[in-house]
Specification:
The chain is of the alpha+beta class and 428 residues long. It has 2 domains: 220 residues, Cytochrome Bc1 Complex, Chain A, domain 1, CATH 3.30.830.10; 181 residues, Metalloenzyme, LuxS/M16 peptidase-like (Cytochrome Bc1 Complex, Chain A, domain 1). It has 16 helices and 11 strands. The protein has a 6-stranded mixed beta sheet, sandwiched between helices. Strand 1 and strand 2 form a beta hairpin. Helix 4 runs parallel beside helix 9, helix 10 packs across helix 16 and helix 11 runs antiparallel to helix 12. The longest helix is centred in the first third of the chain and has 19 residues.
């Protein structure tokens, strides 16, 4: 499964203080972070692994995502059916996803089945055997997954935009890989990929339930402390060669689709939060975002228009996206640039700034209500920055942002000639 936009938003906005959690560390480098939530009967638990598609060599494109699939296809003591059936028969859920920089294996079960979840997740993360027969079958499944994304222009255009924006770098590679690379993988390729990348210091097990830390430590001791101390060298190649590009692709579709944007900020950059405020103001999830009001409500040109910001460990990207009739493409682009120009020329008034802050703080607080997403975000935040902030601390930072700062930031980032753009046009 590929990271969803909702998961991306939750990853960005959720920050919890370390004081709310208990940390368990093992000599092999593995860490466990647990948060006790009294009023829940569900145990959420997952491994967050700091390996993603950007860590693949050119011949390995799609390997991280394929590994995510193969984790469910056989371990040293289980076949595929027994993996899938282990938690499902007790009403639990087992899942995984892959991003540019992470692979996550996670599960949700009733508290009394927590041991099953801990044991199964450890088994599929560290003891997969990659049966050749299952590899060949799964190649077909992933090729179908590729076709599914290609049939969805709003998903397919993201892959093309990444390839244009991060031209020549692994961040521009498709998470699913290419038909050529996926078709070539063998068991030896998987074992070699893990030897090159698996490092216990870059793996976090996060847990959220009503169980006490002592109970969680007992489970973690049972399943994690004897894992070998994998220690692959960290060699993530930074991105530093941006050049704006534009491309137009003709496809058998009904609407024109357009995505444009440029480089943003990393997870650790102090500008990340105020920049996200700008992105949220222009095209966030609210129906009153400036782009939605201008393109949809006032002019009826689009059904969907949005902006998004994806921070990475060393850089980031932002984009604007909309779909419209081919004949309305130029007008839609013109109106979009008018709104972008407006935030560069006119500072927000006192009321506008207050409402922008209140909206973002409300979205952050509501995102935290999802225990499963919160559990996964804990691990990602610690791996990315080694720290987390409390909601009061985060709200304090939001309230400290000045209109003049947003104006300066908009002028620094939203440069027309520094934007890349991908356009899908329907066949005549």
């Amino acid at each position: 499964m590929v990271y969803s936009k909702l998961q991306a938003f939750t990853h960005f906005v959720t920050n919890i203080t370390l004081r709310d959690f208990d940390l368990i560390e093992y000599p092999n480098g593995l860490r466990v972070m647990h948060k006790q939530v009294p009023h829940t009967r569900i145990q959420h638990v997952g491994f967050v692994v700091d390996i993603g598609s950007r860590d693949e060599l050119p011949t390995q494109q799609g390997m991280a995502h394929f590994w995510e699939h193969m984790a469910f296809k056989g371990t040293e003591k289980r076949r595929s059916f027994h993996i899938l059936n282990r938690l499902e028969v007790v009403g639990g859920e087992l899942n995984a996803y892959t991003t540019k920089e992470k692979i996550c294996f996670y599960a949700s079960v009733l508290n009394n089945h927590a041991d099953k979840a801990f044991e199964l997740l450890t088994d599929i993360t560290f003891h997969s055997v990659f049966p050749e027969k299952e590899i060949e079958k799964e190649k077909g499944v992933i090729l179908e997954e590729m076709s599914m994304y290609e049939d969805s222009p709003e998903d397919d255009i993201q892959d093309h935009f990444d390839a244009v924006l991060f031209h020549g770098h692994a961040l521009g590679h498709k998470i699913l890989g290419t038909e050529e690379t996926v078709s070539s993988f063998s068991k030896t390729d998987f074992t070699g990929f893990l030897q090159q990348n698996l490092d216990c210091s870059r793996i976090m097990l996060t847990s959220l339930s009503s169980l006490s830390t002592a109970e969680i430590k007992k489970l973690a001791d049972k399943h994690l402390k004897d894992i070998p101390a994998y220690a692959a060298p960290f060699k993530r190649k930074p991105y530093a060669t941006f050049e704006p590009r534009q491309t137009t692709i003709i496809k058998p579709i009904q609407q024109a689709h357009c995505m444009l944007g440029g480089l943003g900020f990393s997870f650790t950059d102090e500008e990340r939060l105020p920049f996200f405020m700008l992105i949220n103001l222009l095209g966030g999830p609210g129906m009153t975002s400036r782009l939605n009001m201008k393109l949809r409500e006032k002019n009826g040109l689009v059904y969907t228009v949005e902006s998004a910001f994806a921070p990475y460990s060393d850089t980031g990207q932002y984009h604007f996206y909309f779909a419209t009739e081919k004949s309305r493409l130029e007008k839609s682009l013109k109106l979009l640039f008018e709104e972008v120009k407006l935030v560069k020329e006119k500072a927000l008034g006192t009321l506008q700034l207050h409402q922008t802050k209140e909206q973002l703080m409300g979205q952050i607080a509501m995102a935290e209500e999802n225990n499963l997403s919160l559990m996964l975000t804990i691990g990602k935040s610690l791996l990315d920055s080694g720290k987390m902030e409390s909601l009061p601390e985060l709200f304090q930072k939001i309230n400290a942002v000045k209109a003049s700062h947003l104006l300066e930031l908009a002028n620094r980032v939203f440069e027309h000639d520094q934007m890349s753009m991908v356009t899908f046009l329907p066949e005549d």
